[in-house]
Structures are given as C-alpha cells and as structure tokens.
Amino acid sequence: MNTPAAFREGGPQPARAEPVLRERVLAALDGVIDPELDEPITTLRFVSSVDVTAGGDVEVMLRLPTPQCAPNFAFLMAADARDAVRRLPEVRGVMVHLEDHYTGHEINAALARGEGFTGAFPGETDDDDLGALRELFQRKALIARQARICKMLLDSGAGAEEVVALSVADLPDGPDIQRCLTLRAELGIACEPRSPAFVLPSGEPLTAGGLVRWLRMARLVATSLEANGGICRSLLQARHDLATDPEEEGP
Amino acid sequence: MYEHNGEKYFIVDGHCHFWDASPANWVKGHEQYAKGWIECFHAYMGLGPPETHWPLEKFQKYSEQDFVHDMFEEGGIDVAVMQSTYLKEWYTTGFNTAEENGRLAAKYPGKLIVNGRWDPREGEAGLDELRADAEKYQLRGVKLYTAEWHNGSRGWRLDDDACEPFYAACKELGITNIHVHKGPTIWPLDKDAFDPRDVDQAATDHPELNFIIEHVGLPRIEDFCFMATQEPNVYAGLSVVIGGLMHARPRFFAKVMGELLFWVGEDKILFGSDYGIWEPKWQIDGFLGWDYPEADHEEYSDYPRLNNAGKRKIVGLNAARLYGIEVPPELRLPDDAGTPAAQEDAQLVQAG
Fold it and tell me: Which of B32, B40, B189 lies closest to A121 in CB terms?
C-alpha cells in the first residue's frame, strides 16, 4: 500500500518545511481525540502526513486501521481535525483527506465543501453533527478516567466516604484530571473547583454506597476502551507495515 | 476430542465458516466492497501467531481438504456449527451460504451443524425460505447479520416489528439458537454501529430463544455485558475474542475474559474459532492452557477464576447443551462442577 511516510517515524520531511507552523498544526492535532478510544489521533498514529506552505495552506492526511472503520467516527475525527487546524490564526486554508477508506470519497468531498455528516451521506442519515454519538462516548470516557483517579486515591488509603466528599480542587493535577474537566465542560457537568470530584455518567455526585458499582462499571468501560485501542493499533500497524508502536503491548 | 496435557476435552466450535471470497465470485460493480471485506478479514488473521497466517489467495478461498485438516484433524473439533453469511450484494453466489454449508455437512455426518439465516426485509418469501431451509438442513439455529445490505437498505434491528413473524417461525420450527453478529460492521452510518440494545428487547420478548452474541459486541463489550447480566437467555460467543486478542493482546484478553466471567459467567460463554479467519488449533490449545498472566496481580484479583471444569463448559459443553449434542459420558462433567457466575455481584450492580 502506498501510504505517505509518517511524520513521526523518520519519514522524509517536506522539501520546504515551514517548521513553526507545522509544529503548531501538529500541536493542534494533538487536541483531536478519537471519540471511541478517548485518545489523541496523533498518538494513535492516524495522522499520516502534514504539509504546510509558506502562505499558510495546510494539508493533513489521515489513515484509519481498516477501510471499513465506521464512517460516523471517521467523519467526526476528520471534521475535528479540520476545525482544530482552521482555528490557528496563521492558517489560510486547510484540506483534510481520509485515505483508503470505503467512504473516503464522500467524506473528503463533504469536508472540502465545509459540510456536516448529512452532506457526506445525503438521504442516508439525518444526524448532521453526530452529537448524540459524541456525547455517549464522552460519558464513557469520563467514567473510565475518573475511576482511574479514584482508584489511585483508594489505593493510597483513602476511604469511600472520604473520596466521595472530595471537590475538584482537592484532586492532584495531571492529564487525567485535565481531560475529565474538559469532558465535564463539554457535557455541561459542573466542573468548578468546589464541584464534586467524582460524578456518575449522568452528572449526579457519586455516593459512598454507589462506589463499588461505579468502580465495576468503570473498570468494564475502561477494559473495553483499552481493548478497542489495542485492536485498532494492531490493525493499523499490520495494514501500514508500521514499526511497533511504543504504546504497544508485546505478546 | 482434543487432548491437552493428557486430558481429553469435548470440543464444539460454535462459529465457523466455509466461504468463497475469490475474485471470480465478486459482483460486477461492487468489487471494491467484496475485496475490502475479505482483505479486512485477512488483516484480522494477522492478529494470530505468524506461523498460522495464510497468503491472501488461500484466504479468499480455502479447500474442503483445508477445512477438514484444520478443523477435525488438527483442531480435534467434535462438532462444528457452520454459520451462513450471504452478502449477495457483493458475492455472486454468496459469501458463505447454507447451501454450500449443507453440501459439506452432508459429507461429514454428525460432525457439522448447519445454521440458517433470515432477514426480516424479505417478508413472506424470506419466511418460506426459512421453512424450506429448516426442513432441508434440520436447522437448530440461525445466524443473523443485521449489518447486511439489501435493496438500498444498509441494515435492520432485532427489535424491528418485521422480525416478529420470523421469531414465531423459529419457535414453531424448533430453531432455538439465534446467533447474532454484534461486532465490527460498516452499518449504520448515523447511529453507534455496535449498539446491542436491540438484542435486549428481543431477548426479553422471546425467553424461549437463546441469543448468542458473537464477538461479544466488540468493540462494545461494556454494553453487551450490562445487557447479558440482565437477560438469562443471552450468551457470549467468543469468536474473535480468542482469535483476535489471546495472542496479539494477552493482557487485554485476560481482562476481557475476566469481565465476561464476572458479568456473564462460564455457563453462558461459547467457544467459536471463526475459522477461516483463524485456525482452531492454536486457539483451543492456548485457551485450555490459559490463566491470568500473573494471576495474583492486583489488576486481575477481582475477576472470577476459570478452572478446568469451566474451560470444559466453554470449549464444548455449553454449546452441546444448546444444540442437544450427545457428549460421550467420559467427557461430561458432574452436575455441580465449576464456578457459578458471580450472580450476587452482578445483581448488586444492576440493582444499585
């Protein structure tokens, strides 16, 4: 398969690299999350190339683990990538292309026209922004991330009553907390410093009596996310003949 | 019968295929789908041990000889359930039809069970075909593929009203095992393609039928588990779970098994090789020898253990029960063997 060399795998750099803009584009793409896996598309190695011109035109190529990856998730990631790059003030124009996907033609054309999901598949869907799908996965990501933090506190000796009484401000800062706060803001769940540290998927505060149930649900959701991420990494690696992913678990 | 470490096991493969995805069978104008489909399957084979990989050409169409060798001679499978998947929009004579399965089954009496299929969008004609197939192949089960394309429609749901006459026909015809493909799919576009909630409704409405969820809803194991724990007639089909994870992702495999044992329980889990995606031998051998990596590790400590009796159920006895397959007395289990599912915990979770 003829895939452009990946930019973080020692592939050739563009002849006229615009290093500053390129770095900023990559940083912007770090903020684009695979909603299904709750991981940035960059660390998942879904970004196969980024080209920039001196005039501020950007071209991003995306590749997915299989040609049959669900079109809805594919569209969300491609559209989010386009929007993230477009938000950079020095960018003049942006083209995002999905490579080797069975609906790539439809998705790419809709992206180029600036349209939503219905633009890509007229008559086949009436869900233009895929909001419900995104929200469902934000709630799953939130429970999995929160539980990781909670588990850490319980392991270090905190009791059930103690952890459910904590506020956002009491939590040790780190990437998990930051991602939880972003997810809560996106879901409209209070995330002020005095808001409860741990909430149910509905946004209600966690109670001591509900802690065991919540942790088991979270463990299951986290296992599912992890297993899916693992399968996606393996398939992507096999399909594009990539070097072993640093995130990869050996057999 | 499979022998592992000097012990004999009765093996039922709950999910296997005998397909023709060779270019000669691709529908004109839809070649890219036919090609993409089989190449996607072929990539999955890459998740098994390298020495079991086939070249694409063999993978597109393997022979009867390959089937018999891999399944019976090497795999030691006593009885295999052959699933039928038509995909006639992409494959001219079908990908893997009941007819082709039936032809093979007739040559190996007692070794192969043919499962049929139905599609509610076919209406009366579909019901007639189901009745004819039931008689012809003595159907005890069907495999339903809700993602199949049909006359411009890209799929259907198990809780569609149009399914009701088909459930009624299944009961009337003695077809009690409904295998449902809930796994990687390309439909629908506008909803979560893996949502298993339609099974929930169908299983509640039809307690006489068993619903075996192939691929355990991957990549939506959590939704599947939350449902299966509440529905006594919902089972987990391990096809893809063992083949896709046990070798490539042993730690994830252990966690997925742990979750399935916790929520679903060893009495409701069925082995399926998903042959020809993966050969059965390495799967059976690996599974019979399997335990949690670092079993005392905190990461796995809350999961139920899987002992020898539990493995016997999963690799054969559970499916034998569902399909009424006679198991030789020396390969059976005493009634009370094994570890019951963590029902109390599961109920605590659903009630809370």
Answer: B189
User: Which site among A231, A241, A248 would you substitute to test the B interface, given the most B Cβ atoms closer than 10 Å to its Cβ?
Assistant: A231
Q: Which of residues 224-263 of B touch A (CB under 8 A)?
A: 225-226, 244-245, 247-252, 255-256, 258-259, 262-263
Q: Are A187 and A203 in contact (CB under 8 A)?
A: yes
Closest-CA distance of chain B to residue A134, Å: 10
**What is the model's pTM?**
0.80
Q: Which residue of B has its CA nearest to A210?
A: B352
Q: What does the pLDDT look like over A213-239, one tens digit per residue?
A: 899 989 999 888 887 787 788 788 877
Comparing CB atoms, the residue among B37, B44, B222 nearest residue A221 is B222
Q: Note whether B193 and A68 are within 8 A (CB).
A: no
Residue A5 scores a pLDDT above 80: no
Q: Which residues of A touch B192 (CB under 8 A)?
A: 72, 133, 136
CA distances from A102 to A68, A236, B24, B57 (A): 6, 15, 21, 22
How far B2 CA sits from the closest chain A CA (Å)?
25
- The structure tokens 């998740």 sit at B47
Virtual torsion, Cα B32, B34, B38, B39, nearest 10 deg: -10
ipTM: 0.72
Query: Model confidence over A167-205: pLDDT tens digits?
Result: 999 998 888 899 999 999 999 999 999 999 999 988 899
Of B30-39, B256-265, B293-302, the range with the lowest mean pLDDT is: B293-302
State the Cα–Cα distance between residues B67 and A199, nearest whole angstrom: 52
